[in-house]
Every structure is written in structure tokens, then in C-alpha cells.
Amino acid sequence: MKIIVIGATGTIGKAVVAALSPRHEVISASRNGPHKADIQDTASLEALLEAVGPVDAIISAAGGAAYKPLADLTPADFQMSFDYKLMGQINLARVAPAYLRDNGSITLTAGWWAREPVPNVAAIATVNAGLEGFTRAAALELPRGIRINLVSPPLVGAPEWNAGKVARMTPEDTAKGYLEAVEGTATGQVIDTRPYAKAA
Ligand SMILES: NC(=O)c1ccc[n+]([C@@H]2O[C@H](COP(=O)([O-])OP(=O)(O)OC[C@H]3O[C@@H](n4cnc5c(N)ncnc54)[C@H](OP(=O)(O)O)[C@@H]3O)[C@@H](O)[C@H]2O)c1
């Protein structure tokens, strides 16, 4: 398959590219990456897809949202989170079908904190839950057999602030959720990556 990964240089994206590359032709993209695209800039997404399409799968492992105590979260923090991780990926899913082959797939990224939050993630959990609703609903309307799924990892990697407090898994195990989305047949699903985590 010919697959675009947006966010290909990130913690998760790098592992997704590594997992897909032995079996597929992978095009790596991000704002500063080998191929340039910004999920918040529709014209940049269309330019990338126009240049490299048609493709069989489009993956987003990009986006961010405010991580702060609820008392410190401002309307601007929420709006930034909505504009970035939620609307950025919805934007991508909106433009993607025109560049996908029949029976192609869109895979977006949310996070398990929508289901099992920890303190300081009110904005992140809201965005992730919004992506879950979008994915289930969009799957009903995509044309030509195009599928859409949402990978929902817990904390990935080992950020210093975590200090072992929150359940986490490796980028390599997380990437298996993206393989499931791209190589499987499901649509409208939230893919819980935790079953792929190897026992510590
Ligand atoms: N790491 C975790 O623990 C974790 C857990 C659950 C969910 N997630 C979600 O998984 C996704 C990736 O997380 P990560 O930890 O791998 O992030 P990361 O290490 O910060 O990497 C982000 C990647 O996305 C690209 N990117 C950022 N903003 C972009 C934009 N506007 N348009 C296009 N590309 C953009 C970055 O490259 P450029 O800077 O070159 O654009 C980079 O390739 C995020 O949505 C995050 O919320 C992460």
C-alpha cells in the first residue's frame, strides 16, 4: 500500500513509519518533515495530497492540546486544543477522501485519557472524546468503501514529568494499533492499544 503518515517524526509517528515500512511505501510528513503539511492548514494538506496521491491510507499521529490543571485552563487553552488536535485531524479527514483510492483508510489519533483521565487533562480528554464521536459518525458517510478509525493510546514513552505515575506503553507496541487500523477491515472503531503493551 502507499501510505502517508502525518506526524511521522514524532514519538508515535516514527514507530508507525518503522512498523509500516517493511511492507508498504510510506511517505513521511509533518510541518518541518521530509514532506511538509500542517493539519491546521487545509491548503497545505491538499498540496501534499495532490503531490503524492492517490494513496491507500492516510494516518495522522499529529496534534496537541493543553495539559494544565482545570483551574488554570482558560477558554483560549480549550480553543487552542480544539483548533489543533480536534479540528486539525477533522480537517484532514474532510479533505482525505478525494485523494484516497477505493477502500482506502483514514487513521486518526486520540488518547485513552478520554476514557480513563488523570488530573490536568480536561482539555485533552475533551478533544479525544470529540474525535471518538467524529470517527463513529464519519464512518457512516465516507464514500467508496473508505474506512476511518481512531487509535487511542495511553501515555506513550517516558516523559520526565511522569516519573512512573501513569500507565504507559512503548511507541513500538503503540504502532501495532495503527497496523490494525490500516491493514484490517474495521471502520468507525476506537482502537485501544493497551492490549498490545508487552508485560513490563
Ligand atoms: N505521546 C503520548 O503519550 C500520547 C498518548 C496518547 C495520544 N497521543 C497523541 O498522539 C499524537 C502524537 O503524539 P507524539 O507524542 O508522538 O507527539 P510528538 O512526539 O510531539 O510528535 C508530533 C509529530 O506531529 C508533527 N506535528 C505537530 N503538529 C503538526 C501539525 N500542525 N501538522 C502536521 N504535523 C504536526 C510533528 O512534527 P513537526 O513539528 O515537524 O510538525 C511530529 O512529527 C498527538 O495527537 C498526541 O496527542 C500521544
List keywords for this structure.
200 residues; 9 strands; globular; two-stranded parallel sheet; Rossmann fold; seven-stranded parallel beta sheet; alpha/beta; binds NADP nicotinamide-adenine-dinucleotide phosphate
Q: What is the CATH superfamily classification? A: NAD(P)-binding Rossmann-like Domain
Structural class: alpha/beta
Instruction: Let me know the largest β-sheet.
Output: 7 strands, parallel
The end-to-end span amounts to: 33 Å
| Mean pLDDT value | 95
CATH architecture title: 3-Layer(aba) Sandwich
Individual helix count: 5
Q: Count of DSSP E strands?
A: 9
Helix percent reads: 25-40%
Radius of gyration: 16 Å
The total number of structural domains is: 1
CATH class: Alpha Beta
Structural account:
- By secondary structure, the chain is an alpha/beta fold.
- It has a single domain, classed as Rossmann fold (3-Layer(aba) Sandwich), CATH 3.40.50.720.
- Helices cover 36% and strands 22% of the residues.
- The protein contains five helices and nine strands, in the order βαββαβαβαβββαβ.
- It has helices at 11-20, 42-52, 75-95, 122-138, 171-183; strands spanning 2-6, 25-30, 35-36, 55-60, 100-109, 147-152, 155-156, 168-169, 189-192.
- α1 (11-20) crosses α5 and α3 (75-95) runs parallel beside α4 (122-138).
- The mean pLDDT is 95.
- The site of NADP nicotinamide-adenine-dinucleotide phosphate (NAP) has 28 residues, from α1, α3 and β7.
